[in-house]
UniProtKB/TrEMBL annotation:
The keyword Transmembrane helix applies. Keywords: Membrane, Transmembrane, Transmembrane helix. The chain crosses the membrane at residues 16-35, 47-76, 110-134, 162-183, 195-215, 227-249. It comes from Streptococcus moroccensis. Coiled coil: none annotated. It comes from the Bacteria. This is MFS family permease.
Length: 256
C-alpha cells in the first residue's frame, strides 16, 4: 500500500514539478547562450543589451525562486489538504496505516526537495558548459584528475567534515519537513484559526530546537565533531516530531 500511496503523490503533482523543472532548464539554456553571445559581441555595453541581460538573469532567478517556493508550498498543501482538508475523509478510509500515509508523504516531499536542488545545479552547469564548451571542460577535468591528491581528498571526504556535513544536511532536511508536518498537526488541534496557529507552532518548535541545540553546544563545547552532533541531535528531533505527528493524526485528527 505504501508504494501505491507514493505513486499517487507523484502522480498528483508530477506535471507541475516537471513543468517547472523543464522551464528552469530552458531558461538556463537561453541564459547560457545569451551570456556567451554578449561576451563576444561588440555592442555588449549598449543600453538594450544590458537591459536584456538583466531581464534574462532576473527571469532565471525568478524561476529558481519559484522552484524553491513552490516545492515548499506543495509539501505543505499536500499534507494539509490530504489529511486535514476534505480529502482527509477519503485518505483516512484507505486500507493503509497511519505510518504508511505519513511516510509516503514524507518520502515524496524529500524526493521533490532534492530534485529541486538537482535542477538548480543542472541549470548552473548548463550555463557554465555553454560558455566554456565541452573541450575546455573535459581538459579541465583531465587536469584535475591528473594533478589531484586522492589521498588528501579521501582523507577530507571520509575523515574530514564533508561526509559528516552531508549526513547532517540529509537528516536536517528530513527534520525540517517533519517540523512542518508537526506544526500543521498542532495547529489543526484547534477549532479555528488553524493556519495561523500552525505558523505559530512552527516558529515555537524552531525556537525551542535552536535554543536546545545552542545550550548543549555551549555546555559541552563540541567543535571538532559538530556535524556528528547535529546529526545525532536531528535524529532525536526527527523521531520526536514523527511520532508526535503520527499520534495527532491517528488519535487527535480534526478534519475541517
Amino acid at each position: 500500500m505504501f508504494g501505491k500511496l507514493l505513486k499517487q503523490e507523484f502522480k498528483s503533482v508530477g506535471k507541475w514539478y516537471l513543468g517547472l523543472y523543464g522551464l528552469s532548464i530552458v531558461f538556463a539554456i537561453i541564459l547560457g547562450f545569451w551570456v556567451s553571445h554578449m561576451s563576444q559581441a561588440t555592442d555588449s555595453d549598449s543600453f538594450i543589451a544590458i537591459m536584456l541581460t538583466i531581464l534574462t538573469f532576473t527571469s532565471f532567478g525568478a524561476i529558481i525562486a519559484a522552484l524553491g517556493l513552490s516545492t515548499l508550498v506543495l509539501i505543505i498543501r499536500r499534507f494539509k489538504d490530504n489529511i486535514y482538508g476534505r480529502q482527509g475523509y477519503l485518505t483516512m478510509t484507505l486500507p493503509a496505516t497511519t505510518h504508511q500515509i505519513l511516510l509516503s508523504k514524507l518520502t515524496a516531499a524529500i524526493i521533490w526537495y532534492f530534485l529541486s536542488i538537482l535542477t538548480v545545479g543542472l541549470s548552473i552547469f548548463i550555463i557554465v558548459l555553454i560558455n566554456i564548451g565541452w573541450t575546455d571542460l573535459l581538459t579541465g577535468l583531465k587536469e584535475i584528475w591528473v594533478n589531484a591528491d586522492f589521498q588528501m581528498i579521501f582523507k577530507e571526504v571520509f575523515v574530514g567534515n564533508l561526509t559528516p556535513y552531508i549526513i547532517s544536511f540529509l537528516i536536517g532536511t528530513v527534520g525540517n519537513v517533519l517540523m512542518l508536518y508537526c506544526a500543521i498537526a498542532l495547529g489543526h488541534l484547534a477549532e479555528s484559526h488553524r493556519v495561523l496557529l500552525s505558523f505559530v507552532a512552527f516558529f515555537v518548535i524552531y525556537a525551542i530546537l535552536s535554543t536546545m541545540a545552542m545550550l548543549v553546544l555551549n555546555r559541552t563545547g563540541i567543535t571538532e565533531h559538530y556535524y556528528w552532533f547535529t546529526s545525532a541531535f536531528n535524529i532525536v528531533f526527527c523521531l520526536i516530531t514523527y511520532f508526535a505527528t503520527h499520534y495527532m493524526i491517528k488519535y487527535k485528527l480534526n478534519i475541517q
